[in-house]
């Protein structure tokens, strides 16, 4: 039987439907991000990329996308075969920003409460007091690795939606804020693997970027074989940013100029996805906003206070390809890579503003 509202330890009720409980620890909230100049933010981004590259060798594009996702305040979906460094990358990111890291292995029998947490009876001297206290789950961390997310049931996948969108979870009518910054790095096996479930469209839409790491080049793989960075570099990786600096970068990125001509360019790309004969569903307005945010993050990391067309063009496939639905596949279908192929075709057909 659910407890009465008065028995829950949380903040006083507000006029809103749900009440907001204080965080599980004082460090859950950074009161305000650091105030950074453009040069300082660019230097912070460079330090972060260099640190991540120590743990994930030979993949500068993946390191760049991960940094852009963090600065844009989004979430990252890594879709690839096991053993290419997805877990190492997520762990290195948490270490680099002095953040709390949690890894959750998603399985078919995992329940939403196992991830979010639950209100548990309060005990004093081994005796129940009649009150209930929220016990946070592994989701309450700065970097959460949702490992093999498509092995979990759709019910558990849906439990992530509020957390990823609102940076909060609601249990028994009480809203609990998540730590800041908060980033979900999810890994996904190819869908033809046994025991996997396709992610629902609403879940995919919450990921700012979907990216494959891929196999390393022969020279980089030889270096990994000689000196495994997961065993050598990762345990000794030191923080290079504070969480306040990360929040400061996120706030600054949101203020990067995005000219009206770029708005028109981005909208032209989005509109073409809605009209393309190979797509049943095109990019939503949320997808367009995601691409703008990613472009602003890239501009900031490049030391600019304004976006350029290349910011939009270079990020479009990784930000938009997982937000479209293919029309019925026929002979000659390119399979999982077809949406990316169509996006590249659209980019080639869309005039770039000067």
Summarize the structure in words:
The protein has 2 domains: 240 residues, Rossmann fold (3-Layer(aba) Sandwich), CATH 3.40.50.300; 98 residues, Helicase, Ruva Protein, domain 3 (Orthogonal Bundle), CATH 1.10.8. A hairpin with a 2-residue loop joins strand 4 and strand 5. It has 354 residues and is of the alpha/beta class. The chain is globular. Helix 1 packs across helix 3. It contains 12 helices and 12 strands.
Which short descriptors sum up this protein?
2 domains; disordered N terminus; 16% strand; Helicase, Ruva Protein, domain 3; five-stranded parallel β-sheet; alpha/beta; Rossmann fold; 12 helices; three-stranded mixed β-sheet; globular; 40% helix; 354 residues
Beta-strand content estimate: 15-25%
Note the gap between the termini.
Answer: 64 Å
Major β-sheet annotation: 5 strands, parallel
Number of domains: 2
Q: Overall mean pLDDT score?
A: 85
> What's the total count of β strands?
12
Shape: globular
Structural class: alpha/beta
């Amino acid at each position: 039987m659910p407890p009465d509202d008065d028995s829950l330890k949380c903040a006083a009720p507000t006029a809103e439907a749900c009440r907001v409980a204080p965080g599980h620890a004082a460090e859950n909230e950074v009161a305000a991000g650091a105030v950074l100049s453009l040069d300082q933010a660019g230097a912070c981004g460079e330090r972060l990329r260099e640190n991540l590259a120590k743990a994930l060798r030979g993949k500068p594009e993946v390191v760049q996308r991960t940094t852009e996702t963090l600065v844009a305040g989004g979430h990252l979906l890594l879709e690839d075969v096991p053993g290419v460094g997805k877990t190492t990358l997520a762990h290195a990111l948490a270490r680099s920003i002095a953040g709390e890291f949690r890894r959750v292995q998603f399985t078919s029998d995992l329940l939403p409460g196992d991830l979010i947490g639950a209100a548990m009876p309060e005990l004093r001297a081994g005796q129940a007091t009649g009150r209930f206290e929220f016990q946070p789950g592994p989701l309450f961390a700065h970097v959460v690795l949702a490992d093999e997310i498509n092995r979990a049931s759709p019910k558990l996948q849906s439990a992530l939606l509020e957390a990823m969108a609102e940076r909060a979870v609601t249990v028994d009518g009480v809203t609990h804020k998540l730590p800041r910054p908060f980033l979900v790095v999810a890994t996904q096996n190819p869908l033809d693997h046994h025991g996997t479930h396709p992610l629902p469209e609403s879940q995919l839409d919450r990921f700012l970027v979907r990216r494959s790491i891929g196999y390393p080049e022969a020279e980089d793989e030889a270096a990994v074989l000689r000196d495994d960075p997961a065993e050598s570099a990762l345990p000794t990786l030191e923080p290079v940013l504070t969480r306040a600096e990360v929040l400061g970068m996120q706030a600054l990125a949101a203020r990067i100029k995005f000219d009206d001509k770029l708005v028109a360019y981005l909208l032209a790309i989005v509109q073409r996805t809605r009209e393309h004969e190979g797509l049943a569903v095109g990019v939503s307005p949320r997808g367009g906003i995601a691409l703008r945010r990613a472009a602003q993050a890239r501009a900031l990391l490049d030391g600019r206070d304004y976006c350029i067309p290349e910011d939009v063009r270079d990020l479009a496939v990784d930000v938009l390809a997982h937000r479209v639905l293919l029309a019925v596949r026929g002979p000659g279908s390119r399979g999982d890579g077809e949406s990316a192929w169509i996006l590249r075709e659209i980019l080639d057909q869309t005039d770039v503003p000067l």
